[in-house]
Amino acid sequence: MPKRINPLSPSAIANARPKATAYTLRDGFGLLLLVKPKGGKLWRFDYRRPGTGRRNTLSLGTYPDVSLKLARTRRDDARKLLADGIDPADKRKAETVAAADTFEAVAREWYATRAGSWVPAHAERIIRRLERDVFPWIGRKPMARVQAPDVLAVLRRIQARGAIETAHRALTNIGQVIRYGIATGRTQTDVTHKLGEALTPVTERHHAAVTDPDLLGHLLRDIAAYNGTLPVRCALQLAPLVFLRPGELRQAEWQEFDLDAGEWNIPAHRRKLKKALKDDPLTGAHLVPLACQAVAILRELQPLTGAGRFVFPGTRDRKKPLSDMALLAALRRMGYDKATVTTHGWRATARTILDEGLHFPMHVIEHQLDHAVRDANGRAYNRTSHLPERRKMMQAWADYLDALRAAPGKVVAIGKARKAQ
Q: Do both 192 and 329 map to the same domain?
């Protein structure tokens, strides 16, 4: 005859003290409380597996988070499964696997496998896009049950706020996740195929740039007269002289400059390259020849910020670089809206005028813009620098801007005269 077990009471559980070794207090029908030497109290359900009769133990939670009443309810639920021939441990594992196969779980798994190959800023944009625009709507849905109408509803919600390009980017990311789910056996069909046809097409946009000589001269004069902080004014003045990407300019560090040689070496990790190229020891710095006007601007700023890391430190935190918003705000205060001028637009300005107005060879311009240039043999990236030609071009460009700022009409004639030569 089995030994009678007296049910536990709340006070008996609360007063149970740890001993040198773990021990159990039994409540009956397989429910027990395991008291650990360090004081932890764990609910367990002791039972025999259906079919095999082997003993097994199922965790039911931790006391006091799980009360005696709740522990008994969980035990009774497990006993009902056993009565139907179902192993409660197997059922729990199946539920865990199902939870791991939600769209969000698979997406985060996909992200973890890919994030290491992306630059941090790109990786951050992708996970933020998924967390903000996708997970709240289909994140908890099992991957195998995600259908085309579900995805389309997510995309149209993004599109409804006017973020057309973001909707298309989200579609790309959702498709990547689903194809990863197919590869790992979580689903069978890519439901994103041709969904882009149901979205508003993306209108190709270019960064606003000034290419008319008269308007450009006016803008340069406004920048010269800007009365904001010295770092902002110097950044605005240097931007057209080097026509770099805004982030490369704002994050410039003094250690990258050799002012005596008139050179700025932007290290590979700050260039706009794929992560594999950034990590490649053969990928070198991008050398920017500095015209004498650019050197003069930097020498003016050096006494103020030269003791720190950044050439253009932040207004509020000098340990961080100047924000892009600071430069945009300065342009807006001068009366230029985003449809007229952007901080990225200097690249288009220089590319257009150096080609069409000053007639420098396009391959020299492209190298100065740090674009990947295919050579005649079809190599993916031509590492030749054309440095002498670029030095000549950068000084000519700075002289052109100086003349344009002083007398726009005369500079147009200079461009025509060069073409005639």
A: no
Active-site residue, 400 included = no
Same domain for 156 and 190: yes
DSSP characters over 267-279 = -GGGSS--HHHHH
Can you read off the two tokens belonging to residue 240? 């057209």
Peptide bond into 149 cis (omega under 30): no
Pick from 19, 42, 43: nearest CA to 30: 43
Based on the residue annotation, tell me whether 344 is a catalytic residue of this protein.
yes
Catalytic residue among 91, 125, 218, 274: 274
In single-letter form, the type of residue at position 355 comes to D
Domain-embedded: residue 158: yes
206 classed as catalytic: no
Same domain assignment for residues 373 and 310: yes
23 included as an active-site residue: no
Asked, for residue 55, whether it belongs to a domain, the answer is yes
Res 415 pLDDT > 50:
no
pTM for this structure? 0.53
Number of domains in the chain: 3
Query: Of residues 381, 383, 410, 419, which has the active-site annotation?
Result: 381
CATH classification at residue 322: 1.10.443.10
pLDDT, one tens digit per residue, over 261-285 is 999 998 877 776 544 444 444 446 7
